[in-house]
Amino acid sequence: MYRIIFLSLMISLSVSAKEQCFSYKDKFYKVFKKSKSHVVLESVVDSEIGNIFFCVKKGAALHCQGDDDAGSFILEKEKINFNSNVSLGISDGPSLLIKFKEAKSLELKACTESK
Amino acid sequence: MRILFIFFIFYTLNLYAEQRYELNRGISLLDQRSNRTFDILPEQNLQFEIVGEGSWFYRLRVFNADGSEREGQFVSAKSNIDNGFVYATLLDDFANAAEAVAQTGDSLSAGECPPSTERTPPPSDETINASVREDCQIPGTDAAWQAKCEQLYASNIPEEALNYALKVMKLNATSFRTNKCFDTQGLKPSGHPSMMGMTGDRLENNLLANGLPNKCQMVINDTDDRSPSSGGDNCRGRMYYIDLCQGSDAVVVEDYFNLGTGTCRNGRNGFRNGDGLHTTVKGAFFTHNETFDFTNTTTQTAQYRQVASQVARAGGERQATAIHLFGLQNTNNLASVTGKYMHVSPHRSSWGCPSVDPNNYYMIEALANSGPSLVLNWGREGMEEIETCTE
Predict the structure, then answer these.
(1) Which of B253, B25, B34, B277 is nearest to A99 (CA)?
(2) What residues make up the domain containing A94?
(3) Which CATH number fits domain B143-389: 1.10.101.10, 1.10.10.10, 1.20.120.10, 2.40.440.10?
(4) Cβ atoms of residues B77 and B89 within 8 Å
(5) I need a surface site. Which of A101, B163, B324, B383 has the fewest CB within 10 A?
(6) Is a pLDDT exceeding 50 seen at residue B84?
(7) What percent of chain A has pLDDT over 70?
(8) In whole angstroms, how far apart are CA B68 and each of B20, B28, B44, B76, B176?
(9) Tens digits of residue pLDDT in A21-72
(10) A-chain residues within 8 Å CB-CB of B299?
(11) Is B104 exposed, middle or buried (0-12, 13-18, 19+ CB in 10 A)?
């Protein structure tokens, strides 16, 4: 019985460990792996506003690029580096634009800390 | 005696090798009986016998894999056989011969085998109709195609846009010549759902090795003509879907395509070829030859599942039909890596994809099935000369 509880706890911890969050301009975003090559970036407040990014592993980092010109970023263990503007949602709205004038690096935290 | 026997065996085998040929590359044959050129591939396991020759072509008998003979009067350029069946050379020869005939006014009646010593005009009247405007004289097309091509000039398609599209087709009719810019900014990784294993090398040296395969269907998007159906924010342009192979007349279907909000809604980014700018980009694209399901690339799965149902109700496969676009020019060569696809969409704008009404899924399928195919995002201003990226 204890084993089952322990395993369940480990599984739930490992699932939540895949999720990391960051904040930018008073908004909170969640980033997590959907599969080996796909990362989802979405609003913490509204998970409907998100996007899938296709990633390729280069060294220890994941180089991710969106579809429909959603932008690109590099995901490291504790930070996310934005190469360009990144868009979440859809063109007709609702959408969120994480906009930068130049490349920017943001710190990733456990989602419970950043909220 | 043994030596004579070995010579006999060698001679017999060698003779057989000279009589029967198999394909090691895709080529085009002309059937004089139907006056049509068609493509054949090594996988079809066809065999050939040479039954006559002209100065530049062989007359062939064509056998199916089961040994039965195909009906028709087939010819192919000598160089196709002598050089291992190279498709491009055949079409080049057709084009050269067409020029020769246009100058001399000679023609060759179907079925007539010319003396091998004289310079032979082309084996049909295809590609050589001097009355056809030059823009429509594209190697590998027949008189019927060219007549339909002429009809396009009476449609609503802007003449400049049509000329541009036909020029791209002509430059790439027999080999991929607009190859200088398409991958300089990188392509999507081959493992991406839209690429299905495609690489720049495979596109260039396999799918486009013999030029643009699809001369039947193409799409021209007029970025200047903003449709009133856009909802007042200028985010829909005019799309022309063209089919020059179906029916007796040219088919032109007019509808809308969605523009990128970076171009249409605030207009700040114009048509810039960038990352994350949400722009529509101008220039010529060649498509992939397979569709993919756009639902796999978005978190808006509920909306795109509805789109897939709409496609299914309209008679298509249940998917949000999409096709990867490879931008050939400096003005659009980031389209692959940034994921600007042609896809069906429930929205009235895009972030740069020339997305279309779900009921037009069949257009995307046609571009893929006969693809790679030509898609052109055109505008009066800001078009790069196609020659800049053409070798």
Answers:
(1) B277
(2) 19-114
(3) 2.40.440.10
(4) yes
(5) A101
(6) no
(7) 83
(8) 14, 20, 13, 20, 35
(9) 999 888 899 999 988 899 999 999 887 788 999 999 999 999 999 999 999 9
(10) 40, 42, 48, 50-52
(11) exposed
Q: What number is the average pLDDT over the span B312-339?
A: 95
Tokens of A82: 């934005």
Q: Is residue A79 part of a domain?
A: yes
Cα of B355 to nearest chain A Cα, Å:
10
Interface predicted TM-score of the whole assembly (ipTM), two decimals: 0.82
Predicted TM-score (pTM) of this structure? 0.72
Give Cα B346 to chain centroid, integer Å: 28
Residue B75 has pLDDT above 90, yes or no: no
Annotated domain spans of chain B: 2-98, 143-389
B260: nearest CB among A69, A84, A86: A69
Q: How many domains is chain A partitioned into structurally?
A: 1
Concatenate the DSSP letters of all residues of B69-110 into one string.
BPPS-EEEEHHHHHTT--HHHHHHHHHHHHHHHHHH-----T
Q: What's the average model confidence in pLDDT over B288-316?
A: 89
Q: Which residue has the tokens 């087939």?
A: B74
Q: What residues contact B85, with CB distance under 8 A and at least 6 apart? A: B21, B23, B24, B25, B27, B76
Q: Identify all chain B residues contacting A86, using CB atoms and an 8 Å cutoff.
A: 276
